[in-house]
């Protein structure tokens, strides 16, 4: 049970349940291959059965950390910061992104869009999930739509989501890692037939980096 003052700071976004933070190479989507500092925030109730970071779901497992500490660590190593989860929009991202922007950082988010958008972002990667659909506001602001393909039916879902994002959003289809051998050929064929889409791969796993 969090102390009352800590709970208040978490609700304000001044402290966040920090799962991990690390400097690495962006592995997915539009910014694949570029260096970035990742901040993984705990807490998620979207419940994707194939999630490879299930340990992020329970926010209580991750210590509330003051954003000043998070910012200090992040700004020592990179100019681009990626905030991910878990589902980071579970929390108010305004204080953290504001502090990072004050330091001249480019700030990106990886989100399912299941909660209203908060914070100031240079890049929003929307990766919607069937279990808890994005709120309407996120579609309008997404720079990138990344749909995970686990089976053939996911192409239908991807098209439904593509119809909702703004016209400037870049569209990606990405194989779910445990099914990559089965679905990657399907994605390749689909993108060739529907060239508005691009292929995204989890290249960090091939490179054996975080």
From TrEMBL:
Pfam families: Radical_SAM (PF04055)
A single GO molecular function term of this UniProt record: 4 iron, 4 sulfur cluster binding
Binding-site residues, [4Fe-4S] cluster: 44, 48, 51
GO BP terms: tRNA queuosine(34) biosynthetic process
Domain spans labelled Radical SAM core: 31-210
Stretch forming the signal peptide: none
Pathway, per record: Purine metabolism; 7-cyano-7-deazaguanine biosynthesis
Magnesium as UniProt keyword: yes
Cofactor note: Binds 1 S-adenosyl-L-methionine per subunit.
Known EC number: 4.3.99.3
InterPro entries referenced in this protein's UniProt entry, alphabetically: 7-CO-7-deazaguanine_synth-like, Aldolase_TIM, rSAM, rSAM_sf
Residues that, per the record, bind substrate: 25-27, 40, 84, 210
Binding positions for S-adenosyl-L-methionine per the UniProt entry: 50-52, 86, 127-129
Keywords: 4Fe-4S, Iron, Iron-sulfur, Lyase, Magnesium, Metal-binding, Queuosine biosynthesis, S-adenosyl-L-methionine
SUPFAM superfamilies, per the entry: Radical SAM enzymes (SSF102114)
Keyword Metal-binding included in the entry's annotation: yes
EC top class named in words: lyase
Cofactor: Mg(2+); S-adenosyl-L-methionine; [4Fe-4S] cluster
Free-text function comment from the UniProt entry: Catalyzes the complex heterocyclic radical-mediated conversion of 6-carboxy-5,6,7,8-tetrahydropterin (CPH4) to 7-carboxy-7-deazaguanine (CDG), a step common to the biosynthetic pathways of all 7-deazapurine-containing compounds.
Oligomer status and interactors: Homodimer.
Similarity field: Belongs to the radical SAM superfamily. 7-carboxy-7-deazaguanine synthase family.
HAMAP family: QueE
Protein name: 7-carboxy-7-deazaguanine synthase
């Amino acid at each position: 049970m969090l102390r009352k003052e800590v709970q208040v700071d978490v609700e304000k976004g001044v402290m966040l349940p920090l799962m991990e933070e690390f400097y690495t190479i962006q592995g997915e989507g539009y910014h694949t291959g570029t260096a970035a500092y990742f901040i993984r925030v705990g807490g998620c109730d979207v419940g994707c059965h194939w999630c490879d970071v299930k340990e992020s779901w329970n926010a209580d497992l991750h210590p509330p950390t003051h954003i000043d500490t998070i910012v200090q660590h992040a700004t020592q190593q990179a100019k681009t910061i990626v905030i991910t989860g878990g589902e980071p929009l579970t929390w108010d991202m305004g204080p953290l992104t504001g502090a990072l922007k004050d330091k001249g950082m480019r700030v990106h988010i990886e989100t399912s869009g299941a909660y209203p958008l908060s914070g100031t972002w240079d890049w929003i990667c929307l990766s919607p999930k069937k279990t808890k659909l994005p709120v309407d506001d996120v579609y309008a602001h997404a720079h990138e739509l990344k749909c995970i393909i686990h089976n053939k039916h996911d192409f239908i879902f991807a098209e439904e989501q593509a119809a909702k994002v703004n016209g400037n959003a870049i569209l990606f289809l990405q194989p779910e890692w445990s099914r990559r051998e089965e679905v990657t050929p399907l994605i390749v064929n689909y993108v060739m037939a529907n060239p508005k889409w691009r292929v995204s791969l989890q290249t960090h796993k091939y490179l054996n980096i975080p």
